[in-house]
Amino acid sequence: MDRISGLSDELLIKILLLVPTKVAVSTSILSKRWEYLWMWLPKLEYGHRYCSEPESKRLQCFLNRNLPLHRAPVIESFRLELRHSRFKLESFNMWVVIALSHCLRELDIFFESHPAPANPIILPSNLFTCKSLAILKLDGDFILDVPRMVSLPSLKTLKLQCVRFTNDETLQRLLSSCPVLEDLLVDLGDRDITTRKFSVVVPSLLSLTLVMLYTHGMDGFVIDTPALKCFELVDSNCNDYYCLLEHMPNLIEAHFDVSLLDIKSLIGSITSVKRLTICSKAMLDEGFVFNQLEHLKLCLCSEHSLNKLVRLLKLSPNLQGLHLFYMDEHDGRKLVYWNQPTTVPECISSSLESLSWSFYSGEPEERDIVVYILKHALHLKTVTIKSSSESDFTQLKMLQELALSSRASAACQLKFR
Question: pTM for the complete prediction?
Answer without folding.
Answer: 0.88
